[in-house]
Amino acid sequence: MVLEKQVFLFLNIVHNSMKQKLTESFRAGGFQLSPEQxxxxxxxxxxGVLTQQQIADITMRDKNSIVKLIDGLExxxxxxxxxxxxxxRQNLIEVTPYSLSxxxxxxxxxxxxxxxxxxxxxxxxxxxxxxVLARMESNMDPTSDLEALAEKYPTKKENGNG
Length: 162
Description:
Layout: H1 3-28, H2 35-47, E1 50-51, H3 52-59, H4 63-75, E2 79-84, E3 87-95, H5 97-118, H6 123-140, H7 146-152
Antiparallel strand pairs: 1-3, 2-3
Helix pairs in contact: 1-5, 2-4, 2-5, 3-4
């Protein structure tokens, strides 16, 4: 198989498998949560109250998909929309007390899944892989800078996770 085709095929397979594993882990832990919804929750837990546009910017998703993800999270009592007192046309998204009470359990499920996926891959190899992914993204979108995004919104370490 041509190397370039392997990159495309393997990234697609790993992406789908990773999403499936995370979804199954959340479900086994009693949470109906998709990996995309988890990323929104993780962003809100780390950054606090945000607008839908800020969530879209941080997670690099379009605003329409964020609206649908928030709809699902709101139904599960994980977030709520509140009017922005400074701009009534805008909703602020905040976590609920329930989501704070289940955060540790959800985080644990996510980290356990990711650790099992990464397995025995060295930290150096993972850092190289992340740099390659960032470079691939900037090759597709020169305005994209994943490394700068990671610097701006670093993963916060809590209880040894992160």
